[in-house]
Amino acid sequence: MPIIAPSLLAADFLALGKACNMLNESEAEWFHLDVMDGCFVPNISYGLPIIEQIKSTTTKVMDVHLMIVTPEKYIAAFKKAGADILTVHYEACSHLHSTLQQIKAHGMKAGVALNPHTSVDLLKDVIQDIDVVCVMSVNPGFGGQQFIEHTYEKVKALKKLITAAGAATLIEIDGGVTENNAAALVAAGADVLVAGTTVFKASDPKQMISTLKLAK
Length: 216
Known about the structure:
Blueprint: E1 3-6, H1 16-25, E2 30-36, H2 48-55, E3 61-67, H3 75-81, E4 85-89, H4 96-105, E5 109-114, E6 132-136, H5 151-165, E7 170-174, H6 182-188, E8 192-195, H7 197-200, H8 205-213
Parallel strand pairs: 1-8, 2-3, 3-4, 4-5, 5-6, 6-7, 7-8
């Protein structure tokens, strides 16, 4: 069964504590936290103080996804705020291997996100150093976008690369994940499903998380 990582970007920010309590009571294993700077992506979300407060509500994994330029400047700060996994974008890192080493040196798992146009082959030389590859199945910046169908082939290619390298890297899918495509994504090789709108706009968010958890 996949790991479910609801994205709090889709939650009601006026009732963030309530959303955190719901996730704590649900079958979700990770909290997915999208940090946007208005530069790398055309949107601004939330930052360190909010993540620190969310961390105080939960013992679940804090999966922090940095959609920002020069992410290497903020590694220590996000560790202090409570990140367990810190994911940086391939497209934002001029020295990716060094950034991954710094993340691990701070005691976090290291993730790399790929925009829809970025080939998984570019990770071949560093796949052994990556704990999670976050495959963007929409263009980053806004929730509620339509899923990009080519993602299935991309996941299959990434799975082959990971297997060939003998790596233990997890494949995470971020964007447009619903109860209708979850099973196909898991069949293609996905290990972690990020779901924002699908969870938080559902009539019963906890039941939706349980439904996604059963995808296989």
